[in-house]
Design a protein that fits this description.
The structure is a homotetramer of 232-residue chains.
Chain A lengths: L2 H16 L8 E7 L4 E4 L15 E4 L4 E3 L8 H10 L5 E5 L2 H9 L8 H4 L8 E2 L4 H5 L2 H15 L9 E4 L3 E6 L2 H24 L8 H11 L11
Parallel strand pairs in A: 6-7
Antiparallel strand pairs in A: 1-2, 1-5, 2-3, 3-4, 5-8, 7-8
Helix pairs in contact in A: 2-6, 3-7
Pathway (chains A, B, C, D): Carbohydrate degradation; L-arabinose degradation via L-ribulose; D-xylulose 5-phosphate from L-arabinose (bacterial route): step 3/3
Cofactor (chains A, B, C, D): Zn(2+)
Keywords (chains A, B, C, D): Arabinose catabolism, Carbohydrate metabolism, Isomerase, Metal-binding, Zinc
Chain lengths: 232, 232, 232, 232
């Protein structure tokens, strides 16, 4: 079932090594079929060069496997929480991409220093706290998802406008309207993490880009008045 | 019309992924036919691996599309301003290349620390200020071009000798006698941005290269007494 | 003899250039057959693109060559000491991979800043001191191995849980249950060295990941309660 | 004439792009035939992907072209000075490789922080001063060579044991017994420049490797008691 979905999720997973976002099996992509409430996700620990579309695992929003010969990604419960809370997203990706993970290890949100960032992500990429000991020991992956959601709510962030997050001492999650856009945003995140890292070294007194410039670039590409690209 | 021009502009655009200067569609190259006052430029948001010479868009110096099935690059109005003001240039390129963009985000001009820089760019690569709120909201891309021109005039810079600029919180533009040379200068800019970044880390009290060394290398390659290469 | 062993060691050696861990001949991998007490190791100074499985050298735990037309790696005596003391390991690798070697040159252990590290290495990657003048002049390579072993004992470290070490002013050794896993751990080491380097730049007041998070990730992948991957 | 020499020099030049040491035409390699006192060198400004063995230019130790359709490298006069003074070297290379050039721009010698460096280069890689205004304006390239030689003499350095130098605000020269070894040393230089850059960031109070460790590694590979590799 959902063969097209599995194929798209397979292809989106294969973009991770193509864009240099993964070492070994350190990443997973999923996409949800909102009608059935079922999503396809990479199996756990299977190497990218051995992956096939049929290997994708189907999971429902209770986290139960619906179809597949493999165990789903160990991060499946995080994907479930994000899909349940963020109704407008259709794809989720987790990686240990190098710069984004370094920011996560450092425990810092990535400020918006320029238009490369503002073109895709509205405002800083938030870094959420570590889970507590209790949260870790009891349903770690589920609690990771719940924490992201509660922090987005507390900060009043729109997950469509802020399609990425850093989990302190862990790494990034990104998302989008489908698996392909989620991976696209993960690439953007890695690039802006790299540029912000270097920009802070070049100028330790750096400030975020002016709000009006951030607005201009974000809305040049998003929303009713967007004029970048070839239109709809 | 202008098939040769479109082919050259296509080829120059394809050098951007070859030299690692672009992620996704984050760059555009143009070249002008000075006789007709028409330039060819990359269409907006079209992926590099799908691009063909026929996709190039022809635009006049009023910014009006003359030929092409696609919308031209969203930065077209900046190209127009540069061509109108800098009469001796024939090609323009905009990228979000990583090091140059990091310097732009940091809001700093790139000092000339060595001969790699001096061989191609006379003196520092200037970083121009952000646009004001009014300038952003009214004709952003056109005002970007006008600001570059007015800053070059105010600093008494010759755009032939200084073939690159950084726009604060945004990224670089580079140019040259044609599209190919513009891209060549964009590669140089990225390299000198990378070296300057590292050199400042290695020696925080670094000073620019002596003026006489900068002169020697610049004029070894440019002007009547140049002796690098195989002559004309 | 031991043709399968030589083939595996050859293949593991060839992973070093594949993963970008070596320049020229700066690395070597071995794997031991515990039954016979003989291990296969790369020959000294032979280039990777000329290497064949037959070139692997067989050596016993007294460091004597048992078979092979070439001299074994100049680091053979270090491998011997590690195999003699660390009974549960089956493969050893030495490289001059760039980030790990930079940490070794800096003389610092790599703190565990995140789950990328904790997934594979329990606690920091220790950096052991330089050998003394006497230790260097008398049996340098053997003493390198003895020092690693005595430092692991003194720090009460389990070499299975901490499968890597940095030798001050020299570089890393890594190991695993076989040659392939040893190389895998060397790749992990390089990645965590890179991330830790950047994370400290991003946040100079960075602290190691909480112990409970390190435990969670390590034991998610190792031991009786592991649930990452597809099980046994 | 000297067809074998030209072929070797061509091949050594082609190693520069292979090892990532050059952008565009920013590098040149030569090798001398000591019997005739003639060396082959890359032509000036010719792109690597168009180069052929026949394009190599033959030059004598007065700097006069002996054979070749092209002008020799603009740095030819520097090569001449190095061959005249350093009798035991047979190949010379100049690049603008990124890390080595950054150290040169910073005006700092590269300390020996580890065995990767000590395996090939005895002690620090010296950075020589900028030329004076007079030295630049009168025979710049020749004076670059003379300065390197006089600094090596003043510091009592053996060019066989220290096969590389940095020219302040310019870049590196390296050399060896032939063109191939010269390029090999240029690769080593870039690697040790990269590691030293990172090691200083990891530990700002870093000290050079102990002299006895430097000696051990240098003499493990060089001289009468060398035991690395497969012998002669």
């Amino acid at each position: 079932m959902l063969e097209e979905l599995k194929k798209r999720v397979y292809e989106a997973n294969m973009l991770l090594p193509k864009y240099g976002l993964v070492t070994f099996t350190w990443g997973n992509v999923s996409e949800i079929d909102r009608e059935s409430g079922i999503f396809a996700i990479k199996p756990s620990g299977v190497e990218y060069d051995k992956l096939t579309p049929e290997d994708m695992v189907l999971v429902d929003l209770n986290g139960n496997k619906v179809e597949g010969k493999y165990n789903p990604s160990s991060d499946t419960a995080t994907h479930v929480e994000l899909y349940k809370a963020f109704k407008d997203i259709g794809g989720v990706v987790h990686t240990h991409s190098s710069y984004a993970t370094s920011w996560a290890q450092a425990g810092r949100s990535i400020p918006c220093y320029g238009t490369t960032h503002a073109d895709y992500i509205y405002g800083e990429v938030p870094c959420v706290r570590c889970l507590t000991k209790d949260e870790i020991e009891d349903a770690y992956e589920e609690n990771t998802g719940k924490l992201i959601v509660s922090e987005f709510n507390a900060r009043n962030l729109d997950p469509v406008a802020v399609p990425a997050v850093l989990c302190k001492n862990h790494g990034p999650f990104a998302w989008g309207k489908d698996a392909h856009e989620a991976v696209h945003n993960a690439v953007v995140l890695e690039e802006v993490g790299k540029m912000a890292y270097r920009a802070e070294t070049i100028n330790p007194r750096i400030q975020p880009a002016p709000q009006e410039l951030q607005d201009k670039h974000y809305y040049r590409k998003h929303g009713a008045n967007a004029y970048y690209g070839q239109g709809k």
